[in-house]
Amino acid sequence: MLDGILLEQRGIPTAVICTDLFVPNGRATAKAHGAPDYPFALVPHPMASASPVELARQAKEVLPEVLRLLVAK
Questions:
Q1: What's the pLDDT tens digit per position in 22-45?
Q2: What was the pLDDT predicted at 60?
Q3: Residue-level pLDDT at 73
Q4: Which one of 30, 46, 60, 70 is most buried, by most CB atoms within 10 A?
Q5: Quick check: 53 pLDDT over 90?
Q6: Distance of CA 51 to the CA centre of its chain
Q7: In this predicted structure, what is the pLDDT of residue 72?
Q8: With helix as H, strand as E and coil as C, how does the chain read?
Q9: According to the model, what pLDDT value does residue 46 have?
Q10: Cβ within 8 Å of residue 45, ≥6 positions away
């Protein structure tokens, strides 16, 4: 989350992707750095144990949101 906020402060569009387990952490980080409403894309947790097929499915599902985040800024 913080990397995305810092990059955007430098004018570099970003699309942060966060797993659902880390949403509270991400929101707290964003709030602590002055961006309480910072938008991000959400994917299910865990990612480490997902198969390549599952990762590809999740990537296809989150892609529209990632693109929206990149062009909305």
A1: 999 999 999 999 999 999 999 999
A2: 97
A3: 65
A4: 30
A5: yes
A6: 20
A7: 86
A8: CHHHHHHHHCCCCCCCEEEHHHHHHHHHHHHHCCCCCCCCEEECCCCCCCCHHHHHHHHHHHHHHHHHHHHCC
A9: 92
A10: 19, 20, 21, 22
Q: Where are the domains of the chain?
A: 2-71
Question: Closest by alpha carbon to 45, among 16, 65, 21, 17?
Answer: 21
Please tell me the distance from the alpha carbon of residue 60 to that of residue 29, in angstroms, as a whole number: 27
Between CA 54 and CA 40 the distance in angstroms is: 21
Cα-based angle 17, 22, 51 (whole degrees, multiple of 5) = 65
Tell me the two tokens of residue 60.
């296809």
CA atoms within 13 A on the CB side of 48: 1
